[in-house]
Amino acid sequence: MNGRRIATVVLVAAALVGLGFLAARSLDLMPEQASTRAVLVDQLFRWLLGVATVIFLIVQGGLLYAVIRFRRRPGDESDGPPIHGNARLEIVWTLIPAVIVALIAFYSFRVLAASEEPEDSPLVVEVSARQFTWQFHYPEAGITSAELHLPVGRQVRFEITSDDVIHSFWIPEFRVKRDATPGQVAELLVTPSQIGRFAIRCAELCGPGHATMTSEVVVDSPADFAAWLAGQRAPAASGDPAQAARASFDRYGCYGCHTLADAQASGSVGPVLDGIGQTAATRVEGLQAQEYLRQSILEPGAFVVPGYADGLMPSNLGERMTPEEIDTLVAYLLSQ
Ligand code: CUA
């Protein structure tokens, strides 16, 4: 290679490197950053994307150059020159990727360590996944909720588990995702940095209702969070049975699978409950509406409405709900 060609190659390579970094910097592929961890994760992601873009452009550029420069010319029927190889070149192209991989490992480890740094007195929230709802328990306050509320700026320690199959607890705006595995408790530390509402998703195929297994995290100011906690602590027995029944409908995750306009539920995995008060008596011959509903809650497999799958509804509601809660819920459903 003469001097001019070397200069050209160096120039083109430098242009590709610059383009790669520009592309990686200007691309905005990630959702809003709503936790302190999100900032670190996005920096790492951008850096990786930049490195990968540069490698891609250099490798593809070299390939394109070789294809054009050393193509077979018309009339050239000769073999290529017999070359054994080039030990120095092979050492170089082994060392460079090894150094890059070591840098990536080092940087990733630092991001992981920084984002999992425990702080004093985090807020503990126990997350239970089940087909197809999320439930959040605040052990300090003794509250269970279907909606996740968090105060901004305070570290949260999620203790994540599952009641049935493997799910995955995912809050894209927080850049956190952790499997919910039956029989195990997975810990996850994160500090919300942004007031607002953000989506919670299930990121592990867990059955027919997987796509609808969503919820929301509401990040409040500390004062709003305290007010919400106080509101949750007020007894559900406010004297209004419909209100209490709607609370049960939320607490036990019924809304995840059933549609019921009055409870603002639109699940599609289980039978629609609008109008159930009229149809319950006709479902099973010789069984009164009230008994039909009670048995369907306690023993979901006893009568499965045609067109719906057996084995999806939790069969332990009889142990989890109090007899009063069941009575109230049955009476409420009869009125729908
Ligand atoms: Cu739970 Cu997918």
Give a quick precis of the structure:
Helix content is 43%, strand content 18%.
Structural summary, described in words:
- The protein is elongated.
- The chain folds into three domains: 95 residues; 110 residues, Cupredoxins -  blue copper proteins (Immunoglobulin-like, Sandwich), CATH 2.60.40; 97 residues, Cytochrome c-like domain (Cytochrome Bc1 Complex, Chain D, domain 2).
- 43% of the residues lie in helices and 18% in strands.
- The relative contact order is 0.09.
- The protein binds dinuclear copper ion.
Distinct bound molecules: dinuclear copper ion
**Total separate domains:** 3
CATH class of the largest domain: Mainly Beta
Instruction: Give the name of the CATH architecture of the largest domain.
Output: Sandwich
What would the keywords be for this entry?
about 325 residues; alpha+beta; Immunoglobulin-like; Cytochrome Bc1 Complex, Chain D, domain 2; 3 domains; five-stranded mixed sheet; 9 helices; binds dinuclear copper ion
Secondary-structure topology with pairs:
Blueprint: H1 3-26, H2 36-69, H3 87-115, E1 123-130, E2 133-138, E3 143-145, E4 148-151, E5 156-162, E6 167-171, E7 176-180, E8 186-190, E9 196-202, E10 215-220, H4 222-233, H5 241-251, E11 259-260, E12 265-266, H6 276-283, H7 289-298, H8 317-320, H9 323-334
Parallel strand pairs: 1-5, 4-10
Antiparallel strand pairs: 1-2, 2-3, 5-8, 6-7, 6-9, 9-10, 11-12
Helix pairs in contact: 1-2, 2-3, 5-9, 6-7, 7-9
The structure holds dinuclear copper ion (CUA).
Residues 129, 167, 202, 204-206, 210, 213 line the site of dinuclear copper ion.
